[in-house]
Amino acid sequence: MKNRLFSLILFLTIVFYGITGYHLLTGWHPVIMMFIAIVIGVLIHAATYALFNLLGKGLKQISLHTITAVLSAIFVFTVLKYFGFGWPTLFYSGIIALVILLCIAVYRFQKKRNFLSIIFLIVTVISAGYIFYVLASSGTDPFENEVPLALTQDNSFLLDSEPLQNPAASGTFSVQTFTYGSGTDQQREEFSSGIKFKSNTVDGSWLIPDWKGKKKKWRERYWGFGAENFPLNGRVYMPKGAGPFPITLIVHGNHSMIDYSDDGYGYLGNLLASRGIIAVSVDQNFLNGHWSGDFMGKEMPARAWLLLKHLELWKKWNTEDGHDLFNKVDLNNIMLVGHSRGGEAVSIAAAYNKLPYFPDQAKERFNFNFGIKGVVALAPTDYRYNRKIILNDINFLSIQGSYDADEVSFWGMRPYRRLQFTDSISRFKSGVYIHHANHGQFNSSWGNSDFGAPTKWLLNLEPLLKEEEQQEAAKVFISAFAEATLKANQEYRSIFKNVSIAKEWLPNEYYLTSFEPSNFHTIADFEEDLNITTAKDSTRLNAQNLALWKEQILATRDKGSQENSAVILGWDYENSATVSEKGVYEIMLTAKNSIPFSAHSSLQFTLGAGSHKWLDINLTEVQKEAKTEDDKREIPQLDFTIQLTDHTGQKSALKVSEIKGITKPLKTRFTKFEFLDKEMIGEDWEVQLQTYHFPIAYFSKNNPEFNTEEISAIKFIFDQTEYGVVVLDEIGIAEVD
Question: Strands 548-555 and 428-434, how do they pair?
């Protein structure tokens, strides 16, 4: 019987492997491929049969109770893995196997204390001890902590006026705090009996159809209300004074709904109120995740709509004669701040604000049209809502940490690039990338771990900024944005143009800032077509003596898309035996460009360091063979020259470092075990660009004969390092404010 079964399975192996091989298109004859496949199948079958025979003989020496105990453990822990132990499968399996081996080692040592038992026990104890020691530790910082370039530079040339005051310093207003709500929240006293002002409820059932089943049952049992009567609950930080004051709504993101999130932005609320801006931290905890389920982003319209309903409430109070809040609010100066899913919600709310109808269901009429002047997205999502939000004519800021384990890429730069300025009002948009900042510490109640236990035990927390440092950085940038957006203090824009202006107020860290004013005139942004020699308005592009020249869409660390195309330029004089000239990338302008060059404008572009390892793909086979595993070139400190040529042939040049240094790739180690990073997070870095501004007047200082109003060519000359790669984008001209 055994031989017949073996023969039957062997026959089936030959048939099915033969069919597969015959139809596998490799260029070889199908009969040859069929024969090869059959041989492979037979070898696999024979090897597997022999292995299980060997294991079977070994199992005969083990008691049935031991076998069933091990199998039970495998089943029990497999169920646990899929029930909620969110470790990567391979790592989880290895840990469970190690624990089982440790138990077996202890049991064997008790039964038979011979040499092999002792060695087995020692090895398993040391292995398990090391693993659990690492899990219990805060991790390590594997990368050198260099002094960031931007914080070592002299910034005196960047300001023509008096030095700025620290935007994160408390202002002159005393602050009063209170809450408002519907009074129906049976879990939280501050939104029931503790409210100062009673608010109405709103029917959001049409916005969140997934409010049903167990989600509906358990949420309504916990909160005491449902989607038909969502409360408008807010935690207010109010400057004392006559007003009217600008107002900012701050909204949290997704977190456990029973671990309340709205109290985590008091550091922002108190600061803004002390500087004359009403701040309201909006409660939307009832929309957050719970053991009974997560709405998985389908609640995003509700998050956005509720913000606008809060503004409706404030408008009612503001115009209600005799109300304590009568005429306290300047509803033409509104800012929305959101964190995580809230960071996506504020962009949706700003888009809804101008619409006549709800776009997903035209039966619902909108009539908001509030004076929303600015949107701030902290570590936002940009993929939860099933529509792509394109904002118009609004100030925008997004802030992201490089160690954000929840949103591992800078998704806020996608709405940043989609945002369009269509009128003549002066506005701006900015992005700030903070090295070593994580996701949760922008909220003072979320903590330094972006995952809950047990997954949090895998996170490498040692490199993180301390919570007070991360929040201090957030205060500097958000308050500066508020000053420029709500209070017309335009000088605070300079912080986003060159972060070294704020170096005295910020933690010693790497900051990459992007900035684009509404008067920016694009010369080349590499989004037009597949032709790498052309740009907008008949502009011609050319490269000489470069080892790398290509345009491509930039990837995120997890292989997603940044939704942004850029040009990648590389030079490698060390591995070139023929090129004696330096590499050059040139933009040749024509009369059709109508570019507003003048002594009052700035050449502007975004730039980031690429990996010099990308150059290796262009080496000859001889050069590749000459390289060894130990032949690892250091990451160079990049620099190069920018040369402008006017229509008469006069030239003037500046080095990039004369304005701002080029930051090396900011590498990360998210987990305590390096091999887990790729599985859980992705690559150890991703391309992040920052903006460089070169006042045209600086070029005329270098050459008085240079005509600043008639520029015919822009050259990027890679003459400062022997090799390197840069990513270049969004080249253009902006009027100096």
Answer: unpaired
